[in-house]
Amino acid sequence: MVAIEVILGDITRLDVDALVNAANESLQGGGGVDGAIHRAAGPRLAKAGAALGPCRPGEAIATPGFDLDPPVRHIIHTVGPVWEGGGSGEAEVLAACYRNALETAGELAAGTVAFPAIATGVYGYPAGEAARIAVRTLRETPTEVEKIFLIAYDEESHEVLRAALAEE
């Protein structure tokens, strides 16, 4: 089983082989973690995203890490579901985000991967439920990835992710 660790910090500052971006469909940058990754990786990331997009919810598309420091080989973009109350297939799409991003990381021979909390910001997915889906999906998806980091940007998110990891 893959090792999973929860970390409080800035996803753009991690020394990993790949990091996952909670992107929008255009892949050209936005707010939250997406905006932070785009700022840290530099303008070539938006150009690469424009050439590859759109990305549908649940899919995963990889680009180089460009100017991230420390250097990251790959950024894996995935688009989470917009929360509509839970009856519109949101859980399945969110699980697909984690599964497809992890499978992409494996295809890229990434040994270490950092994931943000996908869809819990502006897309409105309830944090606790999203964390449980993330942990369950990452544990159930076969992979050659050696270590997964779940990155929390604040103390509240950190506690939610730690609780979900402890439940599994």
From TrEMBL:
Residues 1-168 form the Macro domain. InterPro entries: Macro_dom, Macro_dom-like. SMART domains: A1pp. It holds the Pfam family Macro. This is O-acetyl-ADP-ribose deacetylase. It comes from Amycolatopsis acidicola.
